[in-house]
Amino acid sequence: MLICLAALVQVFCSLAVLPQAQLAPASQPKKGKITSIKIKGLQSYPEVQVLTVTRLHAGDFVAKEDLQAAADHLLQLGLFSTANYSFKSRGEDLDVTFDVAEASSVAVSFDNIPWYTDAELIDAIQKSVPLFVGRAPQQGALVDEISAALQNYLALRNPALSVAHDLINDPATDEPVQQFRVKGAGLTIGRIELGHALAAQSRSVQAHLATLVGKPFSRFAISLFLSEHVRPIYLEQGHLRARFRKPEVRFSGNPAKPPETVQVIVPIEPGPVFHWGGARWSGNRALTAESLDGLLALRTNELASGNSINAALERVEDEYGRRGYIDAKLPSNIHFDDSKAIVRYDITVSEGPQYHMGEMVITGLSLAAERRLRAGWPIPPGTVFDRTKYEALLMDLQKQHSEFFGELPVHYDEVGHWLRPDPARATVDVLLDFK
Fold first, then answer.
1. How far apart are CA 15 and CA 389, in angstroms?
2. Which among 102, 130, 164 is the end of a domain?
3. Which of 271, 303, 333 is the last residue of a domain?
C-alpha cells in the first residue's frame, strides 16, 4: 500500500511528539522505506562497517523505534559518545542519516599471551571484528567482541584458555590501555636478562628481580618493574630518553611438551647522557624567573639527572602551595638537543587564584578533641592558605595523634581529608573526617 507524502509526514511527526501509548497499534505500524542510509562524523572507522552494525539496509521498512534501536546499538559498542538519527522523506521513501561523535579509544595490551606476536593477535582480531582498528574503546560491547575473538583464536592452541580484559594504566606511560590476558596460561618466568650493563650490573635491580623470577609471566608486571626499579637508575645518570623495548620471550624445556617457564629478554636503549640547559618561564606572576631558577637549584651544564629535575619541579610546586596557589600547574615542553646532549625545559606556569583559609569542618571527634585541634590549627581564618602546613599537620594527625591530642581519649584509625576551594571567593575550606 502506497503512503502519500502528507500521510508519511504526519506519521513521523506523531512519532516525534506523541507518548508511546498513543502510537499506532503494533499490528499496524506506520513505516517508511529506507532508500539511502549514511553515517556522519566518522574519523577512525570505515562507514561500510558501521552501517553493517546498524542492521539496517536500503529497502527496509522502518518505524521510529527501529531507527532509535539502531542508534542505541551504535552507542552500546563503546565507539561513540553520541549517536543520533535524522531522515528526509519523499512519499514513503526515507533518506536516513546517523550523526555520531567518536569516543576516545585506547591502545590494547596483551599481557600474558607470548605464543604470538602482537601483530598476529591484532590481525586475528581484525578478521573477526572488522571495526577493530588496532585500538579499543574504554568500555562497551566491542571490547567483549574483541575478547571473544581472541578466545576463539587461542582455542585453536588450547581450548582451556579463557580471556579476560581490564582497563588499566600502563606503568610506562601512565596512559589507559585495554589489557587482555588469559587465565590458565601456566607460564612462569625462569630468568630475566636486562639488555644493558647499567641495569644488568645494578645491585638494586638484581635484588628486586626476585619479585618477578618464579612468578607468572606478565608483561604488565615486567613493565611495572622497569618503571619502579630500572628507569630511575637511567634517569639518575642523565639518560632521559632511555627506551625499554617490549620484552622478548624465549621458551625452554622439552619441545614435545607445553612449556612451563619462559626466559625474558628486555632490550634497553639508554640514549645519550644529557646535561642541564636551563629553564624558560612564562605565565609566572607571583614569583620571578630568578626566584624560580633558585628553587630549581640546577646549574647549567651539570648532569641532567631526571630524578633531580623532578624533585626541583616539586620544590617549585611546594613554594606555590606555601603561598596559597594550590591550583598551580607547571606544564613543561622538554627540548632535547641531541647534538649537544643538552635538555631545556620551557615551563608555562598556570598559577590560578591565591587562596585564603576559609572554614574548617571536623567530624568524628569529641568536642574537647575538636577544640584542641582548632586551637592547634596553624592557618588562621582569612590568612593565605599554606598547603605545606596543612600537609605537615595531616602527617602529625595520622602518625602522632596521641602526642597531638595529649591526654584526651581520642581513638581513630584514619583521617579523611578534603580541600573545598571556592575560586570566586578565593577561599578554601578544610574538611577532616576521623574514623
1. 62
2. 102
3. 271
Cα separation, 366 vs 12, whole angstroms? 65
Q: Are residues 295 and 343 in the same domain?
A: yes
Domain total in the chain: 5
76 and 38 both lie in a single domain: yes
- The b/e string for 353-367 (b: 16+ C-beta within 10 A; e otherwise) is bbbbbbeeebeebee
What dihedral angle (degrees, nearest 10) is formed by the CA atoms of 37, 38, 39, 43?
150
**The pLDDT of residue 403:** 67
Q: What is the pLDDT of residues 98-134, one digit of tens each?
A: 999 999 999 999 999 999 999 999 999 999 999 999 9
Domain annotation covers residue 53: yes
CATH number of the domain that 388 lies in?
3.10.20
Shared domain for 108 and 98, answered yes or no, is: no
